[in-house]
């Protein structure tokens, strides 16, 4: 079994991440013999991170959620950053934002519960207007999505007319509606190069993640105009952190997400999207690894990599951690916290998402280059727009 080497002692659990241990009891759910028999096979998937003493608090909620899905014709889309009891035990589809967008587009279910953040739920609604899309907590936002507005994008387009706008999926529906095509960290380089060729230009506008834009710019000759948005999880990693991890854990393989600063990718052994990081561990089976991304992903990748020890960083996404089993149960039981998108915005945003989904699918997520010097990128912010 994989070993989790947690850099936070005691193990970091933000308020509400696991929910109060009596959440099941508060909802009239008990850990009975029947519940135990229904969920024992699921506990095997999470025993590397959930202590046996805690399982009786989760199992009644898990059993109840899974029982509700079929009569309600519902599916749960679980992002890689969900805690393991959500990711493995109630998630019907699991993956990064691109994978979940594809599943949302083709699922025949009538109800989608988004175990992720608000922009992901909006994306599901954009692609599936006839479905009911629920999010367990309306406060589950995103620092990147909050960093830019549709009005900001309109001002940028006025300043740089004729340039295509490539927008990261970590944005609101109104921002997508002002864009030409969306991208994820899995396909960002592909999308930037496609947009430049399609528009016949040598530079593009890429929003809103400053670091992702800089890391993409290091891998292409296309010029990039970026926005000063950052992920509050990934921006905290530094090259100094990597040096400390290597000193404390000799031989550790350092994998970084491209939302990290360029100096981090320069010091890492490998960089890629959430899907690419998981693929790397599965393919190479390093003896010891650290994933420089949201820390719950280490727990989830560890389940299928028993021969690898995971050094688990402390960087939690407070928004992702608002999604709990209790919240999923309440959302599905009461059909609450529905996510809606105005139709005029939805139609325009869908064009940008459809443009991305129409691109040829690569065999695997693109690797990001490591060890490269930083690229020269124009970075805008609200003050620069006047």
Please provide a brief summary of the model.
With 386 residues, the chain is of the alpha/beta class.
Provide an overview of this structure:
It is a single chain. The protein has 386 residues and is of the alpha/beta class. The chain has a domain of 144 residues: 3-Layer(aba) Sandwich (Rossmann fold), CATH 3.40.50.10800. Helices cover 40% and strands 15% of the residues. It is built from 17 helices and 15 strands. The strands form three sheets. Strands 1-13-12-10-11-14 form a six-stranded mixed β-sheet, with helices on both faces. The chain has a five-stranded parallel β-sheet with strand order 7-6-8-9-15. α13 links the parallel β10 and β11. α3 packs parallel to α16. The protein is globular and about 65 Å long. About 3% of the residues have low confidence.
The main pleated sheet reads as:
6 strands, mixed
Q: What level of helicity do the residues show? A: 40-55%
Count of helical stretches: 17
Poorly predicted ranges? 9-18
**CATH structural architecture of the domain at 15-142 and 319-334:** 3-Layer(aba) Sandwich
Average pLDDT metric: 91
In oligomeric terms, what are we looking at? single chain
General form: globular
Q: Structural class of the helices, strands and pairings?
A: alpha/beta
Give the strand content.
15-25%
CATH superfamily caption of the domain at 15-142 and 319-334: NadA-like
Give the strand order of the largest sheet, numbering strands 1, 2, ... along the chain. 1-13-12-10-11-14
Number of DSSP-assigned strands = 15
């Amino acid at each position: 079994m994989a070993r989790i080497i947690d850099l936070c002692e005691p193990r970091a659990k933000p308020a509400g991440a696991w929910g109060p241990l009596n959440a099941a009891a508060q909802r009239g759910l008990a850990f009975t013999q029947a519940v135990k028999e229904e969920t024992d096979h699921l506990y095997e998937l999470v025993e590397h991170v959930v202590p046996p003493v805690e399982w009786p608090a989760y199992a009644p909620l898990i059993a109840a959620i899974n029982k509700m899905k079929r009569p309600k014709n519902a599916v749960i889309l679980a992002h890689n950053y969900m805690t393991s009891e959500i990711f493995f035990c109630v998630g019907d589809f699991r993956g990064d934002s691109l994978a979940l967008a594809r599943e949302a587009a083709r699922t025949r279910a009538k109800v989608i519960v988004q175990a992720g953040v608000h922009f992901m739920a909006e994306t599901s609604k954009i692609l599936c207007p006839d479905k009911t899309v629920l999010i367990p907590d309306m406060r589950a936002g995103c620092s990147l999505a909050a960093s830019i507005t549709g009005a900001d994008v309109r001002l940028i387009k006025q300043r740089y007319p004729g340039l295509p706008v490539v927008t990261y999926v970590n944005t609101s529906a109104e921002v997508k509606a002002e864009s030409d095509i969306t991208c994820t960290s899995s396909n960002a380089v592909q999308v930037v190069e496609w947009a430049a060729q399609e528009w016949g230009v040598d530079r593009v506008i890429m929003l809103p993640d400053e670091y992702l834009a800089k890391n993409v710019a290091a891998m292409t000759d296309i010029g990039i105009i970026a926005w000063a948005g950052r992920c509050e999880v990934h921006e905290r990693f530094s090259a100094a952190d990597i040096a400390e991890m290597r000193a404390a854990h000799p031989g550790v393989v350092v994998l970084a997400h491209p939302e990290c600063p360029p100096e981090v990718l320069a010091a890492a052994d490998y960089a890629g999207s959430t899907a690419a990081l998981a693929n790397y561990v599965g393919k190479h089976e390093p003896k010891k690894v650290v994933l420089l991304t949201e820390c719950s992903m280490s727990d989830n990748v560890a389940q299928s990599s028993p021969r690898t020890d995971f050094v688990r960083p402390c960087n939690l996404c407070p928004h992702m951690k608002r999604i709990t089993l209790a919240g999923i149960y309440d959302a599905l039981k009461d059909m609450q916290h529905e996510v809606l998108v105005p139709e005029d915005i939805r139609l325009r945003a869908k064009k940008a998402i459809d443009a991305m989904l129409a691109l040829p699918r690569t065999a695997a997520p693109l690797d990001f280059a490591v060890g490269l010097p930083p690229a020269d990128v124009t970075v805008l912010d609200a003050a620069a727009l006047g």
